[in-house]
């Protein structure tokens, strides 16, 4: 099912200061996602030019590449400052609170014709099964994190089950998940409540990654170039997904080489990591997981 309720969820840059209405905040809390227009045509062209100029070897790979563009070895200059984009920051502050901290930055890149499929999952994949708490999937749990997809080309790869972040798996979902809370097999059936989030270039979807969701495009009809980000608020204690970036690579020399706004964003991340060393265990598990389960570069 395509999501076409854009009158409510997508506002034009020309008519909005990118501050969420009460209706939009309520919709995000209830549904677990929100779609907004963030980038204009000039932004899109500038970021696409920076990506193509970087000449990553993986651009020609016959798979979905996941390029960690804030890390020194995979840095894409000219794209990195998207983490500080004003509209993006305004929405994240409305959803999370002040003192927004970047905590994830990937570029999903695949040529048309690539076969891209994931199983349905919640983002507790890096957590040992015995440590998963069902309270995380409830209305009174304060989840201090938001993920964002910002496509630079048309993108319909995100599927989500609205409202599932606030409840345990239902009977249909339990059938396909089996005895795990983490992920179904790649060939699991479509879920009756699943929605495809179809985005045009420059739109963004903000979503609660505890909702049941998946990346699934089948054989891609269009090239996919999508920025994937994660954010946390320093106003509240971290929840388990905080700690995605590999902060150990952010040396003084590397930080000095960055644009000032990007440098300050990563310094804020380092300060927050220093305040919360307990997330290091989840960071280590997350790095081990993505290297094992997902092909990343």
What is this structure's SSE topology?
Layout (H helix, E strand, L loop, with lengths): L5 H4 L12 H10 L1 E5 L3 H14 L10 E3 L18 H11 L3 E11 L4 E3 L28 E6 L3 E6 L10 H7 L17 E5 L3 E5 L5 E7 L4 E10 L18 H5 L3 H16 L4 H14 L4
Antiparallel strand pairs: 1-8, 2-3, 3-10, 4-9, 5-8, 5-10, 6-7, 6-9
Provide a descriptive summary of the structure in words.
By secondary structure, the chain is an alpha+beta fold. Helices cover 27% and strands 21% of the residues. The protein contains 8 helices and 10 strands. The strands form 2 sheets. The protein has a 6-stranded antiparallel β-sheet with strand order 1-8-5-10-3-2. Strands 4-9-6-7 form a 4-stranded antiparallel β-sheet, with no helix packed on it. The model is unreliable at 1-17 (pLDDT under 50).
Average pLDDT value? 89
Derived from helix and strand composition plus strand pairing, the structural class reads alpha+beta
Give the strand order of the largest sheet, numbering strands 1, 2, ... along the chain.
Answer: 1-8-5-10-3-2
Biggest sheet features: 6 strands, antiparallel
């Amino acid at each position: 099912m395509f999501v076409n309720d854009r009158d409510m969820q997508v506002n034009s840059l020309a008519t909005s200061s990118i501050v969420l209405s009460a209706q939009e905040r309520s919709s995000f809390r209830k549904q677990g996602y929100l779609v907004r227009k963030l980038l204009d045509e000039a932004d899109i062209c500038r970021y696409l030019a920076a990506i193509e100029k970087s000449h990553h070897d993986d651009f020609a790979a016959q798979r979905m590449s996941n390029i960690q563009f804030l890390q020194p070895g995979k840095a894409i200059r000219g794209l990195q400052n998207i983490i500080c984009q004003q509209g993006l920051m305004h929405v994240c502050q409305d959803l999370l609170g002040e003192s927004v901290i970047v905590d994830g930055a990937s570029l999903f890149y695949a040529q048309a014709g690539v076969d891209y499929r994931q199983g349905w999952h919640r983002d507790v994949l890096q957590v040992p099964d015995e440590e998963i708490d069902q309270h995380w999937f409830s209305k009174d749990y304060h989840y201090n994190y938001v993920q964002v997809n910002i496509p630079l080309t048309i993108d319909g790869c995100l599927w989500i089950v609205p409202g599932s972040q606030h409840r345990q798996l239902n009977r249909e979902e339990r059938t396909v998940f089996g005895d795990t809370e983490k992920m179904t097999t790649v060939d699991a059936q479509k879920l009756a409540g699943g929605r495809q989030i179809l985005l045009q270039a420059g739109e963004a979807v903000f979503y609660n990654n505890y909702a049941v969701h998946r990346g699934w495009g089948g054989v891609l009809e269009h090239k996919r170039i999508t920025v994937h980000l994660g954010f946390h608020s320093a106003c509240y204690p971290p929840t388990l997904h905080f700690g995605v970036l590999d902060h150990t690579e952010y040396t003084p020399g590397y930080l000095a080489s960055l644009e000032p706004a990007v440098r300050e964003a990563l310094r804020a991340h380092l300060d927050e990591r220093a305040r919360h060393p307990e997330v290091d265990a989840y960071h280590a598990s997350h790095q081990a997981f993505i290297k094992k389960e997902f092909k990343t570069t």
